[in-house]
Amino acid sequence: MLACWSGDRYRPSTTGTGGTSGAAGCTGAIPSDVAAPVTTCAGTAATYPAPASLPAMAALPDPFTAMDGTRITQAKQWDCRRDEIGAQAQEYELGPKPGKPASVTGSFDGTQLTVTISEGCSTISFAAPVTYPSAGSPPYPAMIGMGGISINPTHLNQMGVATINFPNDAVALQNDGSSRGMGAFYDFYGASHPAGARSTTSL
Fold first, then answer.
1. Is it the case that residue 17 has pLDDT exceeding 80?
2. For the chain, what are the domain ranges?
């Protein structure tokens, strides 16, 4: 899941516009997010070549080769390499993942999990329906699906597995290019936020 991308490197700037929710007369806005410098495994600030200058590669790149070309050979080196990969994914594909909001809370009414996110004057919520198993007894294992469960949710419920539907389209609509900037994420951070829909689901 995209939440594995390390988002703590991206911190809000002091300018920009964001969500519009809040009390009447409240002008606090969610700041735009900009990429803070990322330290590479070599200890230098990461730089990103223009996409047009990236070399063509017939094979998949080696994930254990750092940005400076050195080989990752020890587990303790993986933290810096993970940061490099996350930063490159956000730079070239996903757009910057925002930093942690001021408040993230959840409530559960028995059949639906509601998540509420707040920062300054802006607040958004989205709900994830929960379907209980028709067999077994709690506590149940659960499978979370992005926009639905594609591997026979009825059969999973009969096996004693609960299913949870994460409403990714409600968070960031993903129809086509015309739906860019639509959804709760963009209501919160602003329709022009550079994060792509796939990055927003890790909010």
1. no
2. 103-200
